[in-house]
């Protein structure tokens, strides 16, 4: 699964040809979650409140880039890295 970003120990990934709705995967300190791109809701899994706040802030800033990568992933094309949260 390609890593598209990482910050503060949080790893952001997307699967190729993944199922709808458009989402991304988060790994952080043994925690895992799937986050919907459009709503930023947690679809599956859980994150600590601090990690979820960081992920939500980052995703809100990069929603268009996440959707672009989602489209690429559905086509099994090379994904673009997305700048980390600073």
Write up what this structure looks like.
The protein is of the alpha+beta class. The chain is built from 2 helices and 5 strands. The protein has one domain. It has a 5-stranded antiparallel sheet, with no helix packed on it. Strand 4 (31-36) and strand 5 (42-45) form a beta hairpin. The longest helix is centred in the middle third of the chain and has 13 residues, at 49-61. It is globular, with a radius of gyration of 12 Å. The N and C termini lie far apart (24 Å).
Count of spatially separate domains: 1
Terminal CA distance reads 24 Å
- In the predicted model, the low-confidence regions spanning at least 5 consecutive residues are none
How would you write the strand order of the largest sheet? 1-2-3-4-5
Please tally the helical runs, counting DSSP H or I stretches of 4 or more residues.
2
Rg calculated over all Cα atoms:
12 Å
Shape: globular
Instruction: Tell me the β content.
Output: 25-35%
Percent range for helical residues? 25-40%
Sheet with the most strands?
A: 5 strands, antiparallel
Mean of pLDDT: 96
Number of strands: 5
Would you tell me the structural class of the helices and strands? alpha+beta
The run of helices and strands is: EEEEEHH
Summarize the structure.
29% of the residues lie in helices and 29% in strands. It has 86 residues and is α+β, with helices and mostly antiparallel strands.
Features of the shown structure:
alpha+beta; 5 strands; 2 helices; about 90 residues; five-stranded antiparallel sheet
